[in-house]
Request: fold
Amino acid sequence: MLTIGTPLFLYAAARQGIPAPTTEDQVRTVLGAVGAVDISTIQARSLPRHLAAENESYAIWMYEQRGQLDHFSRRPGYYRDHPFDAEKPDLIRSDEDARKRVFRFVQESRLDWGPIKANKVTRVNEALSASYLHSESRRLYEVELWETSTDPRRTFHTLRRSRILVDAQNGHILRAFASYTPSEGPWRISVSESAAQDTALAAWRQAGHVFRADQTTVSAKWILPRFDTAYRRDDRLLAGWVIEVKQKPTDEDILAFAWVHGETGKLVHLHGPFPPPSTGE
Reply:
């Protein structure tokens, strides 16, 4: 077991014979951003693709590749030391207060993100909060963050997202999850749009789903190297084709989608078809 005083990332990297991207300072930075006071008792351990540091009050996992946050949560010791007082006024009183608090946390954590937006803010009442925290009831705000990009080649899947839970009474960050995507590789596309479309349609046919070419839209986009979160250190976003299937071209709902490698023409991922949306009838 390592202590927080040991250079965590240097230790894990040295075991694998790779350059260390960061040090334990990244752990300290995030803990500082959530207001952790005493971190002297925090113990750390190396896990597959992650480094974990925890004590009875805090638990934090960092992606080993870049030293970026995977998730943070408060543990039972925190709730014991910070009991909820139903009569005490809230420090966070509105959606805007919650947004500002979360943006400050992201800034102070030095998360390696581009521009972000608060896609959704949800007020969680006391009756539901216990299911969120697995502890006593509290008044909470959950803020969903999306990374944004002006690059039209970026899609939902290649932008990072996060859900952060804020204690309305004291403004403390109680829980934070953040997704990770690889950095961009070279933009090279030599496979034609029609060839990519044929590859996807053939794959769907083989899977027992027959779609027409006029149901598809084909776009040159950045795609993930695989539909997974277990990325390797050397993984990069790929230049490729995204093929989407809709019942009608004007429909918003996507029935299925596929990713085709822009250089090799190989199918990277096939998804769907999804069940049709409910009409409520």
Confidence is low (pLDDT under 50) at residues 1-21. The longest helix spans residues 95-109.
